[in-house]
Write a structure and sequence with these properties.
The protein is an all-alpha fold. It has helices at residues 17-21, 44-51, 67-73, 78-93, 95-102. Helix 4 packs across helix 5 (95-102). It is globular and about 35 Å long.
Length: 113
Amino acid sequence: MSIDHIGCCGAYCRTCKPFNTGSCKGCRLGYDTGERDIIKAKCQMKVCCIGKGYTTCADCPEIGSCPMINEFYGKNGYKYGKYRQATEFIRENGYEEFLKIAENWTNAHGKYK
């Protein structure tokens, strides 16, 4: 398990079938090595997060007022609220605690103790 398996938005990539079969590299992998070019990324949230040197949006001091992430979290669908919850958990408890909980998940989001 690695912090690199957490998407900028708070999704946990290690439970995603396309990620595990190799058809998706997730949100972060390959940008640190130059294998992938952040300028070509379609996700503006990823461009912002990685471009500013953050591990995820949880590290950004402007997350509360960020229109991009808050619009994403406000979309219809259960998962968006769970991604927000993940980001809030990371901000309060850190990445290590998040990974301890996430290792038992079967989806890109899960329950917290």
